Amino acid sequence: MSDKQKGLVEAVETLLPDAEHRFCVLHLYNNFKLSHRGLRLKEILWRAASSTRIVDFNAAMNELKNVDSKAFQWLSARSPQHWSRAYFSTYLKCDMLLNNLCESFNGMIRKAREEPIISMLELIRIMLMRRIHRQRDLVGKSSSRLCPRIQLKLDELKKEAMAYNVEWNGHEQFEVIGAFQEKNVVHLGEKTCSCRKWNVSGIPCKHAIAGMSYMHYPPEEFVVDCYKKEVYLKAYSRMMKPMHGPDEWPNSNRSPLHPPIVEKLPGRPKKARKKQLGEEVAKNGKKKN
User: CA 79, 83, 87 angle in degrees (round to 5)?
Assistant: First the structure.
């Protein structure tokens, strides 16, 4: 998943031809709103991105075309395979639309990024050493077979599933009917639902859970393995080893590493700074009391 920088589409296709390349929808929207503003357009774009069925995606795009034809042309020029769940692969079992994982990591290493390269790497190493055992211990305390957040999400879906009626075909398929007579077809054997939410995410949707409840099957058994506690603990089972101080590091026979040649740009360099609690800045740049 990338932030839609120029050249990345061609680079990924060349170097990783079998990878599924997605765009962060927040970055996509930030580019979209430069020339197409308005809450209505924003709502339609996000509805198109979060739609898991092509029919719902097409409905959102048709609405966008009726509201603003230029906005429709701008968005249509971007292949939906990169930014809409309706076109995501069902093999990966991941429905993420935002690169929050990268942004969270960038936020975590904000202080380290200001240090010289050796100090920066040392700070990041310590952060990762702490995180690995902290995440392992946190999930290890859970009594659920699933990761805690996945279990919470599944519990909410169980409540929503209670509003549906189920018709069983006598084997592994169900016709799940909602309050407004909307219908979805669930196949427990293939672990699919016609809404495609289960297909894309690997977590049973409310329609599938309704069918499982009809058969008295625990939904936890149908969650893809990567969200289960035992798999998570395996991922965090290898601890990072402590290191000696720089005075015990081996000497290298290679020539010293010199910093890159950086061309100084005109003007004062900008630096992002988080405001302190209670701090406000007026439009003229002076701090308010």
Answer: 75
**Domain residues for 77?**
8-87
Q: Domain ends where: 68, 87, 106?
A: 87
Strand 165-168 vs strand 192-193: parallel, antiparallel, or unpaired?
unpaired
Whether 3 maps to a domain, the answer reads: no
Helix axes 69-76, 25-32, angle to 10 degrees: 140
pLDDT in tens, 24-74: 999 999 999 999 999 999 999 999 999 999 999 999 999 999 999 999 999
The answer to the question of residue 240 being in a domain is no
Q: How far, CA to CA in Å, does 208 sit from each of 56, 182, 223, 230?
A: 19, 14, 11, 24
Assign 210 to helix, strand or coil: helix
Which of 87, 110, 135 is where one domain is finished? 87
pLDDT value of residue 103: 83
Look at residue 277 and tell me if it is in a domain. Answer: no
| Residue 258 is assigned to a structural domain of this protein | no
Q: Is 281 helix (H, G, I), strand (E, B) or coil?
A: strand
67 close to 40: Cβ distance less than 8 angstroms: yes
Alpha helices in 51-116, H assignment, sequence order: 54-67, 69-76, 100-108
Domain count, the chain: 2
Residue 152 and residue 224 share a domain: yes
Residue 264: pLDDT band by 50, 70, 90 thresholds? confident
Cα-based angle 92, 98, 99 (whole degrees, multiple of 5): 85
